[in-house]
Amino acid sequence: MSAAEALLELQRIDTGADQLRHRREHLDERDRLVAVTAQVNKWESTRRSLVDRIAETAGIVEQAEAEGSRIDAETARLNAQMRTVIAPREAEALQHELATLAGQRAESDERGLVALTEQGEAEEALAAHLAAEESIREAARSADERLQIAESGIEAELAELEQRRLGARALLTEALLARYDRVRSKIGVAAARLTGSRCEGCHLDLSAAEVDEVRRAGDDEFPDCPQCGRMLVR
Ligand SMILES: [Zn+2]
């Protein structure tokens, strides 16, 4: 392989590797995994809030039941007292207290019933929510797997290109490589073919005198394109 062929080959390999790295950074598979992960997080947050809601409403139900028992005990005590009362004014006061307790009892029953209904609804919602767990987790697993496959495919291609890159560089002198690396770090593509009077790097035409100069250069010499500064290969 001549120096000119090795230089163009090196450029092709580096360009190919740049494209692969760009592809690796912009994989659809990664966007998909990000989207599915957001879905999983949202699913988990909904599950947590349903579980919290169930615990909260169950607590209210329990509290209402305890309050009901307390009111019942107090009512029984007052009813027993009522049987021993003779004075009408005392009986009237007890009646009033019993009526207040009955009102409290009705209120706590109502509170308990509302909470029980809400608890039932939250439990139903949780059951439906849990039924979707397997499919959402499977989607996340599969998205993760696809991203890994896509990434490892690119890694394998990059490893192969690296071998070829080292092979091409071994055919070029230190001075040429230093120049190549310097131009490449500045404008990405360092070597371009001169086709007719046109630089394939910048697609501009060189003057007849400039073309002449390139043509007169030695086989291992690659003059700069006067327009873009790339190493011109005849
Ligand atoms: Zn050029």
Secondary structure: helix percent: over 70%
Strand content: under 5%
The structural domain count equals 2
What form results from the Cα inertia axes? rod-shaped
CATH fold topology of the largest domain: Helix Hairpins
Number of helices: 6
Key attributes of the depicted protein:
mainly alpha; 234 residues; binds zinc ion; 3 strands; 4% strand; Helix Hairpins
Helix and strand topology:
Elements: H1 3-25, H2 28-84, H3 88-131, H4 133-170, H5 174-187, E1 191-195, E2 198-199, H6 208-216, E3 231-233
Parallel strand pairs: 1-3
Antiparallel strand pairs: 1-2
Compact summary:
The protein is mainly alpha-helical and 234 residues long.
Please tell me about this protein's structure.
With 234 residues, the chain is mainly α. It has two domains: 9-171, Helix Hairpins; 173-234, no CATH class. Helices cover 79% and strands 4% of the residues. It contains six helices and three strands; from the N terminus they run H-H-H-H-H-E-E-H-E. Strands 2-1-3 form a three-stranded mixed beta sheet. Strand 1 (191-195) and strand 2 (198-199) form a beta hairpin. Helix 2 runs antiparallel to helix 3 (88-131). The chain is rod-shaped and about 135 Å long. It binds zinc ion. Residues 192, 199, 201-202, 204, 225, 227-228, 230 line the site of zinc ion.
